[in-house]
Amino acid sequence: MPSDLQENRDTRQRIIDASIKLFSLKGYTGASTREIAKIAKVNIASLNYHFRSKQNLLQEVSAWVLDDFEQRLVDLASGEVKTAADFSVLVFNSLIHDELKCLNHFKLFLDAENCPKELGPQPVGFLQLNSYLLKEVKAIVPDDERLWLTSVIYGYINHMAVMHSSPLGKRHIHRYMPEKQATVAKYLHQLVETLIRDVNQRYS
């Protein structure tokens, strides 16, 4: 039988999963704690016990989503991939592996006014991508250029992941990328290699 600690973890995770679904569907204001409790199959007292308030719940949910994404990037970076371009393709493929999860996570952060999780000056995953850029970008390239590189790369990854995961986006992509996933990966690879080549030339 599961321990009380494991039961608490399972309950918290069910509440977090239900919150992501409802916050992304209805927004922070539109989603009620009673609806979240119903979807999570817990009573409202249990939700209040674990998170104390709706605002607290949103804080923990947004932190969980970011931490989950960052851990995914850490795991990907620990593999045998050698280049920033190959790593970027891995990140894209990882995001679209679960299309609904991808969309829900991005929609959660579109509700920026109500999302209290503060983002740092560097994009999530900067350290992982930068570990490849340090090998491929000249040492004289300033830190702000590396930050620009990672921001552009992740911006393209996130945009294409959302497009690839949404019904309307899929139809749009299919018009000019018949082999959707493979074509996006090819263009992403080209983008990263071009950006690195460009910044190296500018500081040659």
Blueprint of the fold:
Blueprint: H1 4-30, H2 33-40, H3 44-51, H4 54-77, H5 84-96, H6 99-110, H7 126-136, H8 143-165, H9 167-176, H10 180-202
Helix pairs in contact: 1-2, 1-4, 1-6, 4-5, 5-8, 5-10, 6-8, 7-8, 8-9, 8-10
What does this protein structure show overall?
The protein is mostly helical and 204 residues long. 78% of the residues lie in helices and 0% in strands. It has ten helices and no strands. It has helices at residues 4-30, 33-40, 44-51, 54-77, 84-96, 99-110, 126-136, 143-165, 167-176, 180-202. Helix 4 packs across helix 5 (84-96), helix 8 packs across helix 9 and helix 8 (143-165) packs antiparallel against helix 10 (180-202). The longest helix has 27 residues, at 4-30. The chain is elongated, with a radius of gyration of 20 Å. The relative contact order is 0.11.
Briefly say what this structure is.
With 204 residues, this protein is mainly alpha-helical. It contains 10 helices and no strands.
Question: What attributes does this structure have?
Answer:
204 residues; elongated; mainly alpha
Low-confidence stretches: none
Helix content: over 70%
Tally of strands = 0
Largest sheet: none
What is the radius of gyration? 20 Å
Order of helices and strands: HHHHHHHHHH
Question: Termini separation (Å)?
Answer: 64 Å
Average residue pLDDT: 86
The share of residues in extended strands comes to: under 5%
Return the structural class. Answer: mainly alpha
Silhouette: elongated
Number of helical segments?
Answer: 10
